[in-house]
């Protein structure tokens, strides 16, 4: 077994190196190569440790294909006209998954004329707008009988970002685990590019029988998961967000189908992230709709199923530039989303802007403005990411126009409030047990202004 593992690893390394200097480099954070070089989508693990559990077979074969439940990825140009997205029939608004608010219409600044949603009930489509550094992701997108585009939800993620949510901007795409369908997609341009493998991790869904149930049904880097269904409970051991791979002792010589061989090599180096739940397919790997792709032999697909293992850990990652990846640390736990109530002042209060992740104000002419967010919407949208006692946290503010913000932690009638923090200021707090939090923002008289805030957990002893 060890000899076979060594042979498999060396073979994969040699075939990869043979192509390393022969193909022009496409920049990261672009339409064809989304997300940063150090995104987990573009990085591979070092010394991965594998579980022994095998994804169960179902009555259907595994699948690697585009189709009704995949997505198209459409490139927006600066010259493309804007488009209004309306609610689907029976709903009062379109949900913005970051603000968690419903709006009568949602404006997409540049709408590619060739946009076509997937035909399945999910109705996925992604629009990549490089000029705005955004990927827009839709759920249940379609045209109604009046010729208007409708959707239930719209999400966005930075094109040059991580490709995953974080505790603040926790839902960034239409996949259940939080990312956009673009993440991990086998793209049209790379389906037959002559390379031995895809140079990124793949995206995958599992049947109920493969997915983990309960409070741990998703794990980092996922920030969400499918809602449990009582009559179809998850019975497996793999949470959404987990990476699965083919271990180095997988026998590639048994894979004779050229397309599947390319996928298998990718699964040995990068693996695939579980981003969604499907019905009755042991695993499905997503191919961009419109790619030149045909089905692989079922028996060989089943060999891959039997070989796939969840990655339980690794000693590190190598990013897309071939450098050791620095893990995320001190992630922001706080979003300023939620309902802000004006308690003093005259005029339009500051509102949360999803694209800058900040509060923004217009000009204030008569007297200073004070507003409070009691909603607690900005904390705890990701499991195990709500502040807990007795840990210490640092609240930092970045603002313009003289705006300031304080945080009040409340347990029953007992309140502990930070100073009113301005641009570049911060304060460290020890979180009280069972505390909720609310925030007070103040803007002086003057022109337009903005305010961003971060709440990060401090390491023990700092």
Written description of the protein model:
By secondary structure, the protein is mainly β. The chain contains three helices and 29 strands. A hairpin with a 2-residue loop joins strand 25 and strand 26. The N terminus is likely disordered.
Radius of gyration: 24 Å
* Major sheet description: 7 strands, mixed
> Fraction of residues in helices?
under 10%
Strand order of the largest sheet: 2-18-15-16-14-17-3
Gross geometry: globular
Number of strands: 29
Label this structure with key terms.
about 450 residues; single chain; globular; 6-stranded mixed β-sheet; mainly beta; 3 helices; disordered N terminus
Short description:
Helices cover 9% and strands 28% of the residues. It is built from three helices and 29 strands.
Q: How do the strands and helices of this protein lay out in sequence?
A:
Elements: H1 2-20, E1 44-46, E2 49-50, E3 63-65, E4 73-75, E5 83-86, E6 94-96, E7 101-103, E8 106-108, E9 125-129, E10 134-139, E11 142-143, E12 149-150, E13 153-158, E14 202-206, E15 243-245, H2 258-269, E16 272-277, E17 283-286, H3 298-307, E18 309-313, E19 316-318, E20 340-344, E21 351-353, E22 358-361, E23 369-373, E24 392-400, E25 404-411, E26 414-417, E27 426-430, E28 436-443, E29 449-457
Parallel strand pairs: 3-17, 4-9, 5-12, 6-13, 14-16
Antiparallel strand pairs: 1-19, 2-18, 5-8, 6-7, 9-10, 10-13, 11-12, 14-17, 15-16, 15-18, 20-23, 21-22, 22-29, 23-28, 24-27, 24-29, 25-26, 25-28
């Amino acid at each position: 077994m060890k000899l076979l593992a060594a042979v498999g690893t060396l073979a994969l390394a040699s075939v990869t190196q043979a192509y390393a200097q022969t193909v022009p480099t496409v920049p990261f954070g672009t339409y064809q190569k989304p997300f940063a070089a150090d995104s987990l989508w573009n990085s591979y693990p070092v010394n991965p440790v594998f579980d022994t559990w095998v994804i169960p077979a179902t009555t259907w074969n595994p699948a690697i294909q585009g189709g009704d439940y995949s997505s198209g990825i459409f490139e927006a140009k600066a010259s493309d006209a804007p488009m209004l997205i309306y609610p689907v029939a029976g709903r009062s608004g379109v949900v913005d998954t970051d603000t968690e608010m419903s709006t009568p219409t949602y404006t997409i600044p540049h709408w590619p004329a060739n946009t076509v949603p997937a035909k399945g009930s999910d109705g996925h489509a992604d629009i990549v707008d490089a000029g705005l550094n955004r990927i827009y992701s839709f759920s249940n997108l379609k045209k109604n009988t009046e010729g208007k585009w409708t959707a239930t939800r719209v999400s966005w993620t930075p094109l040059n970002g991580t490709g995953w949510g974080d505790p603040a901007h926790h839902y960034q795409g239409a996949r259940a685990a939080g990312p956009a369908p673009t993440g991990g997609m086998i793209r049209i341009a790379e389906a037959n590019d002559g390379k031995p493998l895809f140079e990124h991790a793949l995206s995958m869904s599992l049947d109920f029988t493969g997915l983990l149930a309960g409070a741990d049904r998703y794990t980092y880097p996922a920030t969400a998961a499918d809602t449990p269904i009582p009559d179809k409970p998850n019975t497996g051991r793999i949470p959404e967000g987990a990476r699965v791979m083919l271990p180095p002792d997988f026998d590639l010589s048994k894979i004779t189908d050229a397309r599947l061989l390319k996928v298998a090599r990718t699964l040995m180096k990068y693996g695939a992230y579980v981003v969604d739940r499907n019905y009755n397919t042991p695993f499905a790997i997503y191919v961009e709709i419109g790619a030149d792709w045909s089905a692989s032999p079922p028996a060989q697909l089943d060999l891959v199923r039997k070989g796939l293992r969840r990655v339980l850990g690794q000693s590190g990652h190598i990013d897309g530039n071939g450098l050791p990846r620095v893990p995320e640390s001190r992630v922001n736990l706080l979003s300023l989303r939620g309902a802000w109530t004006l308690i003093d002042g005259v005029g339009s209060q500051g509102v949360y802007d999803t694209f800058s992740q900040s509060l923004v104000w217009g000009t204030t002419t008569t007297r200073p403005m004070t507003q409070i967010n009691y909603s607690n919407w900005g904390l705890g949208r990701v499991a195990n990411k709500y502040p807990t006692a007795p840990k210490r946290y640092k609240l930092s503010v970045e603002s313009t126009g003289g705006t300031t913000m304080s945080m009040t932690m409340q347990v029953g009638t007992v309140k502990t409030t930070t100073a009113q923090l301005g641009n570049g200021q911060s304060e460290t707090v020890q979180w009280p047990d069972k505390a909720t939090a609310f925030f007070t923002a103040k803007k002086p008289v003057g022109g337009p202004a903005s305010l961003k805030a971060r709440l990060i957990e401090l390491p023990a002893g700092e």
